[in-house]
Amino acid sequence: MKKIHFPQPLAKGDKIAVISPAGAVEPEQLEKGIAMIINNGYKPVLGEHVYTRFSKGYTYAGTEQERLQDLSWALNSNEIAAIWASRGGYGCQHLISGLKTKGFKKKPKWYIGYSDNTVVQSYLLQKGFASIHGQTVKTSGFGVTEESYEQIFDILQGKSLSYSLPSHWLNRTGTMEGQLVGGNLALIYALLGTEYSFKFKKRILFIEDIGENFYALDRMLISLELAGVFGKISGLIVGGMTNMGDSKENVQYEASFDEFAYQIIADRIAAYDFPAVFGFPNGHIRDNRPLIIGGNVKIEAGDEVSIVW
């Protein structure tokens, strides 16, 4: 297994790049998040195209070249100490084949985001670098929990990360330890079979998603099974599954942890004996607590769940 590099803790006054590698954002959508960066003692530095708009079947934050330019700058600049994605959406897959990381390798830095940013985080892990799967800058204005941001700043300061959770009725008990991989299920699925895909052997897989039909969720899980993923992993963590199915038919459409989606997942992994934890607070949900992708994590699932990096 490749050695994983972790960035140095940030110091007060360090610069955090804010970029938009996927969907477009408006300035007012980032105001609260940028103020949060400042209030925690850091200097936000906006990418040149953070507010650019380019429409081509979807409204991106610039052309592929413009978004690649900002991402490459943020990764490789010696002046930048961390990178915070403004949002997800769609578009990160456009960028990874053109990325260069020469400067990044000399000065690794935390990349923070979730959703479509799973693509960048998978790319970075294949290069040997950990990242933070957590809130974007934009979601700070969505009424999310303060703790979900406070814990990101804790990681940036070099503090350790741990969680204690109540048990879920679908949990499969046991102890698992290994490198954490994963993120948004749709993007894990989209990268299968490519050189940018996560490696799964003896890893602990995390999945979350939003806005999928139940049959689409099942299709992605079957694809993971057919690719041998479930036969390789040491354990599974399931986060938010929300806005699933039809809003008019699903009474749990707004729920963070859709029970029918969870049952589909439980049924698909029933033939395997790895431990599994359901109900972890990460994903497209109000309480989106950070995870360290690439970090070694120990999980004990019993009457309570303990997760320690």
Topology:
Blueprint: E1 15-19, H1 27-39, E2 43-46, E3 54-55, E4 59-60, H2 64-76, E5 80-85, H3 102-106, E6 110-113, H4 118-126, E7 131-133, H5 146-156, E8 162-166, E9 174-184, H6 185-191, E10 204-210, H7 214-226, H8 229-232, E11 235-242, H9 259-268, E12 276-278, E13 291-293, E14 296-301, E15 304-308
Description:
- This protein has helices at 27-39, 64-76, 102-106, 118-126, 146-156, 185-191, 214-226, 229-232, 259-268, and strands spanning 15-19, 43-46, 54-55, 59-60, 80-85, 110-113, 131-133, 162-166, 174-184, 204-210, 235-242, 276-278, 291-293, 296-301, 304-308.
- β14 (296-301) and β15 form a beta hairpin.
- It is globular and about 50 Å long.
- The strands form three sheets. It has a seven-stranded mixed sheet with strand order 8-15-14-9-10-11-12. A six-stranded mixed sheet has the order 2-1-5-6-7-13, sandwiched between helices. It has a two-stranded antiparallel sheet with strand order 3-4.
- With 309 residues, the protein is of the alpha/beta class.
- It has nine helices and 15 strands.
- The model has no long low-confidence stretch (mean pLDDT 97).
- The two termini are 18 Å apart.
- The longest helix has 13 residues, at 27-39.
- α7 packs parallel to α9.
What strand line-up does the widest sheet have?
A: 8-15-14-9-10-11-12
The rounded distance between the terminal residues' Cα atoms is 18 Å
What's the shape?
Answer: globular
Q: What's the multimeric state?
A: single chain
Mean pLDDT, nearest integer? Answer: 97
Secondary structure: number of strands:
15
The topology string of helices and strands comes to: EHEEEHEHEHEHEEHEHHEHEEEE
The share of residues in extended strands comes to 15-25%
Low-confidence stretches: none
Structural class: alpha/beta
How much helix, percentage-wise, in residues? Answer: 25-40%
Described by strand count, sense and barrel closure, the largest sheet is: 7 strands, mixed
